[in-house]
């Protein structure tokens, strides 16, 4: 059959009129019930699709998922009027990216592992959606312990820890379900859940107890539609580290109600001296846990986008269905960067302990500077940190009647002192601000001096209600 173009002309009553092919007449048939006309060329009959209706104008709308996706940090920060004081260099203590100031480079061994992966020419193609077996084995070996053993099949490699969290929520939850999320807590949990039609219930963390979970409040939120409990330890934004005893109490709540746990452990082992951060899986005997982590924070390479889900399936609760669901979801994209996968074994096995220790040393120094300096500032109430890269500072707004809320307070601090701390309304917990501790030490000192100046300028001994408050 020749591939020849032809035109089918329709008359007003839906019947084919005379049609032509290369100037010759073609026979036409009435339109059949499915909106197809037929034309004959070279003795063969071909259906010609007839449009039942035409849109009169272009109208392309975003999906419900897109409309329901909102990042609280961006929605708040983008609305802030951030005009730094031109007489003072900007100090941004708002972004949880340890690479911003250049004082925390990753280790040479990490870079060498990447160079070796590139030079091998083995990792330029597509990897399996869940990751290379050898790379998954490297992660399993690194995090396996007698209390929570892991094998390669228990590891899904992802495009950063955010992707790992997305997979875990997606495989455990359906539209109409609810998940339990810490408050204050990482905003991505809500962003992902709401976009998928999943309800978010916030359980409170207690600043007066160094951000321990209000266990009674957490338990009161659980119902038959609760499909996942998210626990962040060490915590973003709080910088807290739960004790072994407290983690066990959380596990008891999950066990009583048969709710699986998504453990966000991206800051695993980023804890200050004197603290320990056991994985939730190592303490669980019956609660199934998906632990999400990655290279971003501990190895100081957030831009490399390498994360993972570790499946700890106590008593085969998840079973093959959940595992297969994770595989299917991982196939929606082509998975984690193959080059970084190729470097994983070298990164995990060859990074010296001194590298981790140096990072912790800087975090400890800056946390002490920040806590000690701001503790003596009237109207501020910092909460001591134990890990991750953050410290939370409470604002006693009764003594700052010139400000409406934490957003107003932090916005003006940029305008007057060129210091930007993130208002914690972005974490569903107003009237605090979060300080990032990864800046150079002298910058931390200077930031605290400026924050003190700002507060002394605006602090009033009388509350906004006209009462004298003791300090």
UniProtKB/TrEMBL annotation:
Keyword set for this entry?
Answer: Aminotransferase, Phenylalanine catabolism, Pyridoxal phosphate, Transferase, Tyrosine catabolism
Pathway membership of this protein?
Amino-acid degradation; L-phenylalanine degradation; acetoacetate and fumarate from L-phenylalanine: step 2/6
GO MF annotations in UniProt: L-tyrosine-2-oxoglutarate transaminase activity; pyridoxal phosphate binding
Transferase among keywords: yes
Query: One Pfam family this chain carries?
Result: Aminotran_1_2
Task: Tell me its cofactors.
Answer: pyridoxal 5'-phosphate
Catalytic activity from the UniProt record: L-tyrosine + 2-oxoglutarate = 3-(4-hydroxyphenyl)pyruvate + L-glutamate
Tell me which residues make up the Aminotransferase class I/classII large domain.
Answer: 89-451
Domain of life where this protein originates: Eukaryota
Listed GO biological process terms: L-phenylalanine catabolic process; L-tyrosine catabolic process
Q: According to the UniProt entry, what is the EC number of this protein?
A: 2.6.1.5
Q: Which InterPro entries match?
A: Aminotransferase_I/II_large, NHTrfase_class1_PyrdxlP-BS, TyrNic_aminoTrfase, Tyrosine_aminoTrfase
- According to its UniProt record, which protein family does this protein belong to? Belongs to the class-I pyridoxal-phosphate-dependent aminotransferase family.
Function of the molecule: Transaminase involved in tyrosine breakdown. Converts tyrosine to p-hydroxyphenylpyruvate.
* Quaternary structure, from the entry: Homodimer.
**What protein is this chain from?**
Tyrosine aminotransferase
The species is Solea senegalensis
């Amino acid at each position: 059959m020749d591939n020849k173009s032809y035109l089918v002309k329709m008359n007003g009553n839906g019947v084919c009129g005379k049609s032509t092919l290369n100037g010759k007449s073609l026979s036409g048939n009435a339109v059949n019930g499915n909106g197809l006309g037929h034309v004959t060329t070279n003795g063969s009959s071909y259906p010609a699709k007839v449009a039942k209706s035409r849109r009169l104008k272009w109208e392309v709308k975003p999906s419900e998922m897109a409309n329901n996706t909102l990042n609280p940090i961006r929605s708040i920060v983008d609305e802030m009027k951030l005009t730094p004081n031109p007489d003072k260099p900007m100090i941004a203590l708002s972004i949880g990216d340890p690479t911003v100031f250049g004082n925390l480079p990753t280790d040479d061994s990490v870079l060498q592992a990447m160079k070796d992966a590139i030079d091998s020419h083995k990792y330029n193609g597509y990897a399996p959606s869940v990751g290379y077996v050898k790379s998954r084995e490297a992660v399993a070996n690194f995090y396996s312990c007698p209390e929570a053993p892991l094998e390669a099949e228990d590891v899904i490699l992802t495009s950063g820890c955010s992707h790992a969290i997305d997979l875990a929520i997606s495989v455990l939850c359906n539209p109409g379900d609810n998940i339990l999320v810490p408050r204050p807590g990482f905003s991505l949990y809500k962003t992902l859940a709401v976009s998928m039609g999943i309800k978010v219930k916030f359980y409170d963390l207690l600043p007066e107890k160094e951000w321990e979970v209000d266990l009674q409040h957490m338990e009161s939120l659980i119902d038959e539609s609760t499909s996942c409990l998210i626990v962040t330890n060490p915590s973003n934004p709080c910088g807290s580290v739960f004790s072994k005893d407290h983690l066990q109490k959380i596990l008891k709540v999950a066990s009583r109600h048969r709710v699986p746990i998504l453990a966000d452990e991206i800051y695993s082992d980023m804890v200050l001296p004197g603290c320990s951060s056991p994985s939730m899986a190592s303490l669980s005997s019956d609660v199934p846990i998906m632990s999400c982590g990655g290279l971003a924070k501990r190895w100081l390479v957030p831009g490399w986008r390498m994360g993972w889900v570790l499946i700890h399936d106590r008593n085969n609760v998840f079973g093959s269905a959940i595992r297969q669901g994770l595989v299917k979801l991982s196939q929606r994209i082509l998975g984690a960067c193959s080059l970084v996968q190729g470097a994983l074994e070298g990164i995990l096995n060859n990074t010296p302990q001194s590298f981790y220790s140096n990072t912790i040393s800087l975090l400890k120094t800056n946390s002490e500077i920040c806590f000690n300096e701001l503790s003596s500032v009237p109207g501020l109430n910092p909460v001591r940190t134990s890990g991750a890269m953050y410290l939370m500072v409470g604002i006693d707004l009764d003594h700052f009647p010139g400000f409406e809320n934490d957003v107003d307070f932090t916005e003006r601090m940029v305008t007057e002192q060129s210091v930007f701390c993130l208002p914690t309304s972005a974490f569903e917990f107003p009237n605090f601000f979060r300080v990032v501790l990864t800046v150079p030490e002298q910058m931390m000192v200077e930031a605290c001096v400026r924050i003190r100046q700002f507060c002394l300028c605006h602090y009033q001994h009388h509350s906004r209600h006209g009462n004298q408050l003791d300090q």
